[in-house]
Amino acid sequence: MLTRMKITAAALTAVAGAALATAPAQADPAAWPCVEFGFCMYAGAAGEGRRIEMLEGVSDLGAINGGLLNDNVRSVKNISGDSWCLYDSPDYENEIAVILDGMAEAVDWEKIGSKVTSAEAC
Question: Where does the record locate the signal sequence feature (predicted)?
């Protein structure tokens, strides 16, 4: 029985190692430019491209930077110390996602990125 468990554990370790070796590389979140203690949204999928850096909420993304990231968010980075909520309507209406402090990741384009219209610490 003990031998079978060791073999199973070794097989699982090998499978996990193979999965890690074939996973696509992602940009180091520390390299994603973002204002200290802020929340950032990017037009690129890995903290790349045009961005908006925030220290406080934005009630209508269409009204800043020519609406650059209104309904066009591909990734986010949160180093604010708080969670941030994303909404699909102006004035913080209809929450669609909560981004926890310390997260830096691509967002689901269909469900979130193509709909973000306002954001605030929550």
Answer: 1-27
Q: Which residues are CB-neighbours of 98 under 8 A, at least 6 positions away?
A: 83, 84, 85, 86, 122
The total of other beta-carbon atoms located within 10 Å of residue 81's CB is 11
- The closest alpha carbon to 42, from 106, 85, 101, belongs to 106
Q: Does 61 reside within a domain?
A: yes
The boundaries of the domain holding residue 89 are: 27-121
- pTM for the full model? 0.74
Q: pLDDT tens digits for 82-120?
A: 999 999 999 999 999 999 999 999 999 999 999 999 999
Q: Compute the distance between CA of residue 81 and CA of residue 100 in angstroms, rounded to an integer.
A: 9
Helix, coil or strand: residue 72: coil
pLDDT band at 22 (very low <50, low <70, confident <90, very high): very low
Q: Which residue has the tokens 């306002």?
A: 118
Which residues, at least 6 apart from 11, have a Cβ–Cβ distance to it below 8 Å?
none
End-to-end CA separation in angstroms for the chain: 51
